[in-house]
Amino acid sequence: MKLTMMLTNDDGIDSPGLRLLARELSSKGVEVYVIAPRTQVSGAGKSNSFIVHAEEVRIEGARSAWAIDGKPADAVVIALRRLLPKPPDLVVSGINIGPNMGLVDFFTSGTIGAAIESAILGFRALAASYSVLRGLTQHDMPQLEAAAQLTAELAIRLAALSPPLDGVDIVNVNFPRGKPRGVVMATIADVVNVNVSYDAESGAHHVLGWNTDDINLAYPGGEEGSDVQLVKMGYIAVTPICLRCMIRAAVNPQTLAAINEILRDFNSRFS
Asked: Which of 95, 112, 147, 224 is the most exposed place for a label (fewest CB within 10 A)?
């Protein structure tokens, strides 16, 4: 049976990462639908808009495609709830131009935000990112093309799993810049790499974005086996993520008991 996949991103519908991936999936026999922001909306996380307009456009390799004036999560919900003619086997977000590693990126990235939206709506998702910090050069294009090939192959194999992924809502993939040393399963790094700089001339505080091309400076630390550590070592980091594991089953039972004790105290006010 022919697989169907929906593609989106946060770099905008003209991003080479998205275009390469659409062509690669289509060349492998996947029925591809694309819906993505018209322009770059990096850092949108899993936020939604109140009003969004969608315009049909042409994308090589896509059966149908739309550009929206909203955010990546908007693209996902509009596609899944209204535009797609049938449910996709997988939602794919990327390939992002820039890494999405560690806890800060997980909650900030529009690329991952689209995958989260998909998972919440009941559709498993793959997010993919290429770890260049301040824009692509011509030297990056062969590696980005190789990343698109591997992402397409991984998406196809994940979508075809039987039984389907159990307990995994999102698979987050980060490609190193340059030729990879291999592919390794990784955890999300417990790294806080938010730096605030101040421009006295404009009076502006700069919160998101990198002021370096050195990934070791942009992502300091990274515990052993984490996405940050492995990408800095030159590996492709593949991180399975279970959103619903964030529910109380994953919390220490003693902590739950302490919280319940506090709630009982509050509930006594209503008796």
From this structure: 224
Please tell me the predicted confidence (pLDDT) of residue 254.
75
> 219-255: b or e for each residue (b if 16 or more CB lie within 10 Å)?
beebeeebbbbbbbeebbbbbebeeeeeeeeeeeeee
- Its domain, for residue 233, covers 4-190+222-270
Q: What is the CATH number of the domain that holds 242?
A: 3.40.1210.10
Residue whose token pair is 């980005």: 144
Q: Which DSSP helix (H) or strand (E) runs through 199?
A: strand 197-199
Asked whether residue 201 is domain-assigned, the answer is no
Q: Which amino acid is at 87?
A: P
Is pLDDT above 70 for 8? yes
Please count the structural domains in the chain.
1
Of residues 136 and 256, more confidently modeled = 136
The H or E element containing residue 64 is: strand 64-68
Which DSSP symbol is given to 244? G
Residue 253 placed within a domain: yes
Query: Is 216 among the domain residues?
Result: no
Q: Judging by DSSP bridges, how do beta strands 236-241 and 183-185 pair with one another?
A: parallel
CA 131 vs. chain centroid, Å, equals 13
Is 14 or 271 the better-scoring residue by pLDDT? 14
Q: Give the C-alpha separation, 56 to 37, whole Å.
A: 12
Is residue 139 exposed (0-12), middle (13-18) or buried (19+ Cβ within 10 Å)?
exposed
Minimal CA–CA distance to 132: which of 11, 8, 23? 11
